[in-house]
Design goal:
- The complex is a heterodimer of chains A (273) and B (261).
- Chain A contains 8 helices and 10 strands.
- Chain A is an alpha/beta fold and 273 residues long.
- The radius of gyration of chain A is 19 Å and the shape is globular.
- Chain A starts with 8 loop residues before the first strand and ends with a helix.
- Chain B is mainly α.
- The chains are: A alpha/beta (273), B mainly alpha (261).
- At the A-B interface, β6 of A face α8 and α9 of B.
């Protein structure tokens, strides 16, 4: 967090709106301001449907904000964010490629010689604990293993920014903790700027340097920003036992709870309408 | 059921069917043969006809012609289907304009095109190929179109975020997806290639399995008609086995390589 480093990801009054099927304009996120410093791990937490992922897509350049702008290393973002790696919530591996080819693809398309790309992919597979699974196709891997491959697929390109959209959402509780620790371990090796979206506050506090809270949608806003001072290196399952963790959790949850309830009420009303 | 039992039962069905056929066509019941041999022939005659075809070697020429026509129809139809499928899927406006015409041509029973093709391309190989192409093309076209359209957005976004340009997306995402759809209908499209060839031959040709059947029918040689049908069935089953092999090889990445048609 040196002052001289440019901000890795900055959103300036970013507003995202969608045209609904009936022609009305739906504002998902309103005037979001967010800055992720170089090497900082920021988690965005909010109730379901608040537009957390929308914000991430703006940072990735997959979505254009209706107003405001995104800056990547102090340069306005036009088109796709070439400095970012994106870990999707849903399965995004190429089902017709083996694990190793899935990991190597990021290098292949850059024109890295095939042998070198494969060697590096194998190394990455090993570091996510799948060294022996190189020849497997995604359908032959478990959900957790597919996430590991996806992580290797993103990290092999050595992006300066890591965008993660509830990447461990579909996994069971134990696998989530293991994946969380793996992520922290890999992240500690070369601190990238991370923007991590989740609906799980505990996960957010355990992983991040900062936790940002969003209000319920529509027109979701950023309503809170906490610095997580828990010491590193952390172990996801152990850090949850600490007193500071509980204090932080209570404090943030008191704000988040109201929004979760609002989001819940809105979603049930939307269902009834 | 074990494999052996299954095979035994399968063979039993054939034996029973053939025995009944032989029995009713040769043994008089109440002084009357139930299936007159003139219309139904009998398994022994049919079998000896098949043996004669193979022993004299007459059949090979016809098989080769039909196989060649089927292969040409499959290759040309598939190539066309892939090209147009890709084009339409990537250019929704073009697809929208041509949509009613595609539906119209596809709704047409292809047999009625046979005389036209015979006029245009003569009685040789190409009129049969043309008929097969009209059948194969649509199967491949619809599947490739669907395959390109049905690429999950997440996979596409992932490709983009990993730095793929349009050409690389084509090669690493659209193309494998489209091919997987095409291969999943491989049995149908290959089958239609053979249908096109045989129907074309039947309606007017100088060689081929369809021609053989039509010739036998023309002289009321029922044994010849049945013999032609059996050879044709065996031919189609052989081709289908080859397709299954190819499919297993190409769709290893699929959870289950089953045909969807």
């Amino acid at each position: 967090m040196e002052k001289t480093e440019p901000t890795a990801v900055a959103l300036d009054d970013a507003t995202v709106a969608f045209r609904l099927a009936d022609g009305r304009l739906y504002t998902a996120v309103e005037k979001a301001n967010l800055a992720v410093a170089h090497g900082e791990f920021v988690a965005i937490v909010g109730p379901t449907g608040c537009g957390k992922s929308t914000l991430l897509n703006v940072a990735a350049g997959l979505l254009k904000p209706a107003a405001g702008a995104a800056r990547i290393f102090d340069k306005p973002l036009a088109g796709l964010n070439r400095d970012a790696g994106y870990l999707f919530q849903a399965d995004a591996l190429f089902p017709w490629k083996t694990a190793i080819d899935n990991v190597a693809i990021g290098l292949d398309i850059r024109g890295t010689p095939r042998a070198e790309a494969l060697a590096r992919a194998q190394k990455w597979l090993t570091s996510v604990g799948l060294g022996a699974f190189a020849g497997r196709y995604p359908h032959m891997l478990s959900g957790g293993q597919r996430k590991r491959v996806a992580l290797a697929q993103v990290l092999i390109r050595d992006p300066k920014i890591l965008l993660m959209d509830e990447p461990f959402g579909p996994l069971d509780a134990q696998t989530r903790q293991i994946m969380g620790n793996l992520l922290l371990e890999l992240w500690t090796a070369d601190r990238k700027a991370v923007l991590f979206v989740t609906h799980d506050l505990e996960e957010a506090i355990a992983l991040a340097d900062r936790v940002v809270i969003m209000s319920a949608g529509p027109s979701a806003r950023i309503i809170g920003d906490w610095r997580i001072t828990l010491p590193r290196p952390r172990d996801i399952s152990e850090v949850r036992m600490e007193k500071d963790f509980h204090a932080l959790h209570r404090e943030i949850w008191s704000v988040l709870k109201d929004e979760v309830m609002k989001g819940y009420v809105q979603s049930t009303q939307a269902g009834a309408a | 059921m074990s494999r052996v039992t299954l095979l035994c039962l399968q063979v039993l069905v054939a034996v029973v069917a053939l025995s009944l056929w032989q029995f009713f066509t040769t043994v008089p019941l109440f002084g009357k043969i139930l299936l007159p041999p003139f219309f139904f022939s009998n398994p022994v005659d049919v079998f000896s006809q098949i043996v004669k075809w193979f022993s004299t070697g007459v059949i090979w020429k016809h098989l080769a012609i039909t196989l060649w026509e089927s292969i040409l129809a499959f290759v040309i139809g598939s190539a066309g289907g892939i090209l147009v499928g890709f084009w339409f899927a990537r250019q929704p406006r073009v697809a929208a304009v041509f949509d009613p015409y595609v539906k119209m041509v596809n709704a047409l029973p292809r047999v009625v095109l046979a005389p036209i093709f015979a006029l245009w391309f003569g009685l040789g190989v190409w009129s049969k190929v043309a008929l097969g192409v009209t059948l194969v093309f649509f199967i491949v076209f619809f599947n490739v179109y669907q395959g390109v359209k049905e690429v999950p957005t997440t996979v596409l976004d992932n490709g983009r975020m990993l730095g793929m340009n349009e050409r690389q997306l084509m090669r690493h995402v659209y193309w494998p997806s489209a091919l997987s759809w095409m291969f999943s209908s491989l049995h149908t499209s290959v089958g239609f290639a053979v249908v096109g060839a045989v129907v074309g031959e039947y309606l007017g040709a100088a060689a081929g399995l369809g021609y053989l059947i039509q010739q036998a029918e023309g002289v009321f040689d029922v044994a010849g008609v049945f013999a032609g049908m059996f050879v044709l069935s065996a031919f189609v089953i052989l081709i289908d086995m080859v397709v299954t092999l190819v499919e297993k090889r190409l769709l290893v990445w699929r959870p289950t390589a089953v045909a969807r048609d």
